[in-house]
Design a protein that fits this description.
Elements: H1 65-68, H2 88-94, H3 98-110, H4 114-126, H5 134-146, H6 150-162, H7 170-182, H8 186-199, H9 203-218, H10 222-234, H11 240-243, H12 246-255, H13 259-271, H14 279-291, H15 295-307, H16 315-327, H17 333-341, H18 344-356
């Protein structure tokens, strides 16, 4: 069963330009070499930040629905007949019959079936149809982990790290996280890469972690897609074909709704990082991240509206986004000067728009 990625470690790459926090530019003319930059208030963190709770509607650079109208799509390939064993316990679980799933899985779990043990642990850990029981969930996750179930090893590693249902044991947690990653669990691959980076500071750790980020990214973990994009853009001695894929990986993470990736992709498009400049698409990605509540994107969007980069100039919209980012604690002297220089009625309109803002 799929298990979402969990943020485990704080991370900061010292000395890498892409991760360096620099002050917002005071001038954003389109002729400048670097039109916008990273904000200067972001704390050290993993490759992931909290995602917006709003809509995941996002720009598309593919074929739109109107382009498809009237075009015959290829037929879907025929489904292959499944001839393998049917797991009635998991079938019941997937249909929401949790007590039935428990009844069917328990005899197998008691006989040492790791998959059944993982299912029992999942039901107990979430309290699905039964009273939530973290301690017994940890017991069954532990048994399944001993039996080599990758999902169980990942979940058990998290419980060992947090001391949830079991005594905290970092060494054992790291061992199971590594085993789960080596077994191909995508969330474990991401988290093991984070552990490798933390235990091996600098470029050495990043290079050791990169294969795990790559495997996890291929399986759709947006955190890892973002990490791969940044590492492809900054690590030395990588093959040129990988460096050329940095923007594509950033776009994948952005399309998945990862607001930090949307912010960075917008900056990359405006500044021409990892490919040609595209002010319009850069503006669209920054606006999407800003509407999702990303404060740094709100700050950058104000600059784009002031300087007509990817959008017509709009002092009220610029002031609105500045007011929102300032309220969130992101100071910017150049935007403050702009705001104080506009008309009183424009300031009033901007404040009213900011007051009406809701994350989308």
């Amino acid at each position: 069963m799929p298990i979402p990625p969990i943020r485990l470690l704080k991370y900061l790459l010292a000395g890498a330009a892409t991760f360096a926090a620099v002050a917002p530019n005071t001038s954003l003319a389109q002729s400048t070499e670097s039109v916008i930059s990273q904000p200067n208030t972001a704390p050290a963190s993993t490759f992931r930040t909290d995602r917006p709770s709003g809509s995941t509607v996002k720009p598309s650079d593919g074929v739109g629905v109107y382009d498809r109208m009237g075009a015959k799509l290829p037929d879907l390939p025929p489904e292959k007949d499944y001839k393998g064993p049917i797991d009635e316990a998991y079938g019941a679980y997937q249909r929401g019959y949790y007590l039935t799933a428990m009844d069917k899985a328990l005899p197998r779990a008691q006989l040492g079936d790791p998959a059944a043990q993982t299912l029992i642990a999942e039901i107990l850990s979430q309290g699905l149809g039964v009273k939530k029981d973290v301690k017994n969930a940890a017991f069954w996750y532990g048994k399944a982990a001993e039996g080599g179930d990758a999902a169980a090893m990942f979940k058990y590693a998290l419980m060992l790290m947090e001391g949830e249902g079991v005594p905290r044991d970092k060494a054992k947690a790291d061992e199971y996280m590594r085993k789960a990653a080596e077994a191909g669990n995508p969330s474990a691959e991401f988290n093991w890469a984070q552990i490798v980076v933390a235990d091996n500071p600098g470029e050495k750790g990043l290079k050791l972690a990169l294969p795990f980020y790559e495997k996890s990214a291929e399986q759709g973990i947006a955190d890892s897609q973002y990490a791969v994009a940044q590492l492809y853009a900054t690590l030395k001695d990588l093959p040129e074909e990988k460096k050329q894929l940095a923007r594509e990986w950033m776009a994948r993470a952005a399309r998945a709704g990862f607001d930090t990736a949307q912010l960075d992709l917008g900056i990359w498009l405006v500044n021409g990082i990892g490919g040609p400049k595209d002010y319009v698409k850069g503006f669209e990605w920054l606006r999407l991240a800003a509407n999702g509540g990303n404060v740094a994107a709100q700050n950058k969007l104000a600059h784009l509206y002031i300087n007509a980069i990817g959008t017509p100039p709009n002092p009220i919209e610029a002031a609105k986004w500045y007011v929102l980012s300032r309220r969130a604690g992101l100071a910017d002297p150049s935007l403050e000067d702009f705001y104080l220089g506009i008309e009183d009625d424009q300031q009033k309109a901007a404040i009213e728009a900011a007051n009406k803002f809701r994350r989308r």
